[in-house]
DNA sequence: TAATTCTTTGACAACGATGAATCTCGGTGC
DNA sequence: GCACCGAGATTCATCGTTGTCAAAGAATTA
């Protein structure tokens, strides 16, 4: 590897002048600039970002803290964020917590101080911990839940999305619409589960339909395919009549698809099913799954915009900004029937 | 952030002594060591890895170059690699190429020189380029294809895996077994598509069955669900009789599931289907999908072991090591029927 | 013409750590 | 009693950049 010094020697100028050219600073004559650029090209010089970071203190690496990567929603979120970060000249360092609240804090404490910024999908963070995190490094949360802390946050339209989904079901003539994915355990007030359940109630109210307790299916502790299938099986076994399932996550919905078909019911003729997240699989399941696309690209864009602001001057920004991404209803076979919709998102 | 200097001042020793304690070097008296450790704890000091990297030249960041992240195989591979890297004290920096051959080289040229090592899933790399990459940074390829270059490589048992899959079909009584995912375009000699097709032929030969050209379905340019479904539809439209589909990737198999069911055929009673990769979805599709698990955890383990070796002393290692991971056949409903297998991997 | 400004460039220190070389000092051997 | 040794600690230079300050020369002004 050649260094700035090599370039300087080759171009016959001082090291500092090379630095100026590399950083596009003004007050370098056109002639000198060309000489230096030629030398840079000849030596295939690339600035050593480690040395630069050390000197400037500004670090162009941002951490991305996620529970896991193997779940489609997270991997596509990560992908969107990486693409967006590139546009900002930032490098993304992914860290996995396995959804473990302690690991979250441990990671932040360990790596936070040496990161330029942090994008975090918090799972078990308390308000106090959120404040601590924000004190260590410029942070943006990607979270359903609000924190009592001076942190920016990007959220998806949980409530509105499910509300629209219910509206869609109603418009197609379904009236006994089950909600799959409620959670009445000790979840925090404004968790995704609660917000989505609120959206479900909103949708029913919009349509003048009653909210029947027997159609609200609890799923605990996680929104997985197995538990989704299990929830629907319970519903069927109890003999509760229903003609639609609004699942609070695609994983649940895929489980529901399975359980419904297993019971010999046709989708969507006898039962319509819809999910939330619009993961890749939604477009390719059998039948393909109607789902709410939570605007992942927009989430990535906004999160990086917020973070970049804050990295550039931490103090000046208003303390606690919130961006809610737009959602889009992706209608597919599981509510509409036909096969035309299959194979695409 | 406190620095070593702060710690030194606090402990009343020299900066270098702190360095010794932090790095666990000998020739520090027990008494001094305790004083220093106390100071470290009091100040919550953490060594600045940027400065350390600059000074030592040894970088504990390894790049992981992948085509994408949103595809389940890659995200679970990435996850496995990150966990494994942690055990080696290494940090993983993921870079995405979108499967673009030029982007691969551009990324390596750009970041390679400042990385400690590189794990790469190459897509469009030529032998010459592979040599170039290896010259820039210690590299391990995770690749089906062999390269004429002094690089270590970790591969999966492409050929053996498909062979076992065909054997499984045969043992269940299927005889007209289609191969889904051949590619007779200008792919390199030892690509995954070719190796898996070889495995298919092996399996038929093992069973004394003929390899019928009309049962070999080309899929090009990529192994996606749509193209998988399209391939099976072609087969059905041509009126070719078949009773099993061995797909060279889960994505293809999921498309096949769809196309087969769409045609009103029952799985596995009339047609059995199996895939390759054992992605999460395989366990949860309808019906659940028999698949070859390529030993991702082992791949991650071996890749990091090889890379670590090479990072520690580049020259000493034998030039071109190859590790082939063990595979495992995950039998599920799509070949075996029943529902017992559903829901788990 | 001399004084002043502006433009372009360079010398030097510093970021926070580590490697090499050096120093100190109590303990040995003769 | 003197040279020698080695463990334990220190000093100094250095990794590859960038920020600060100053210098040299060209251009402008009085």
Automatic annotation (TrEMBL), chains A, B:
SUPFAM superfamilies: lambda repressor-like DNA-binding domains, Periplasmic binding protein-like I. The keyword Amino-acid biosynthesis does not apply. Residues 2-56 form the HTH lacI-type domain. One of its GO terms (molecular function) is DNA-binding transcription factor activity. Keywords: DNA-binding, Transcription, Transcription regulation. CDD domains: HTH_LacI, PBP1_LacI_sugar_binding-like. This is LacI family transcriptional regulator.
